[in-house]
Amino acid sequence: MEYRRLGSTGLKVSALSYGAWVTFGRQVGRSEARELIALGYDHGINFFDNAETYNAGDAERLMGDVIADLRLPRDAYAVSSKVYFGATAEPKPTQRGLSRKHVFDACHQALQRLRVDYLDMYFCHRPDPETPVEETVLAMDMLVRQGKVMYWGTSEWSAELIEEAHRVARERNLIAPSMEQPQYNLLHRERVEHEYASLYDRYGMGTTIWSPLASGLLTGKYNDGVPDDSRLGHPDYAWLREALLENDGARLKAVRALAPIADDLGMPLARLSLAWCLKNPNVSTVILGASRTSQLEENIRALDAVPLLDDAVMQRIDAALM
């Protein structure tokens, strides 16, 4: 396993990490979750990602139970949560958003569900237009100073809002965000590569990217339709299927154009796609979402594929996506 600094912080996270979105409590039960986390940890994965809203908090409960059952040393792994959407299907006004109250309450609830004394990373899951950025920065600063959070960050915030958070932190002598968790993959590049470009050097922001395989689209398994037992085939994720397959299947066409490149390199398309994400020096860690141990084992092999993506291959990939 390769380890990378989380931006300019001193925290080293595995280049490949493991997250619970969509899978835990839905596609993955307790026994499967135990096998997946144990396998990831044995292969050097030391960051496990979660959020209050994932399966209404059950994903965090499952992850916390499994990690406790495996008796992983607390100083050998990092775990995260995210706050904004709430942990119930129909949250009351004080049970969602980025107000000081909800940030505080949600942190303590995540600690209980994950069965830990502190969160290594705590993300503002989306910007909250109804809460001043200053209030949220103050709330996160308070949690860090109390020792309940080690590093805080944002997820899918605009560069402008992240700049504002840093300005507030600088002017008030508060602890600023250390990382962003954006979507990033071969089909979704603009924000990470362009919008955030100034943030990396200016503030030392790290990124913990999600959906590196575009929810499975970049595995090629949807090239001939949507299997009933796949993530996009699940009725609860019809919205995700529509989002990924919109625009007359333009994304599918791009995936089909990438397949010959992977074939020529002698690797599955998924491995190529993950290796491509790992090539970006501004990516601190790539969050995997495998639902089976065989998938996770295959995904981890992407580390060995990175050296094969030389300049000629990268140019060929860009040309295929034009």
Description of the structure:
This protein has 322 residues and is an alpha/beta fold. The radius of gyration is 19 Å and the shape is globular. The protein has a single domain (3-216, 277-307), classed as TIM Barrel, CATH 3.20.20.100. The protein is 43% helix and 13% strand. It has helices spanning 30-42, 58-70, 100-114, 133-145, 159-172, 190-195, 197-203, 238-244, 246-264, 269-278, 293-300, 302-305, 311-321, and strands spanning 3-5, 12-14, 16-19, 47-49, 78-83, 119-124, 149-154, 179-180, 206-209, 285-288. Helix 4 (133-145) links the parallel strand 6 and strand 7 (149-154). It contains 13 helices and ten strands.
Notable traits:
322 residues; alpha/beta; TIM Barrel; eight-stranded parallel beta barrel; two-stranded antiparallel sheet; 13 helices; 10 strands; 43% helix; 13% strand; globular
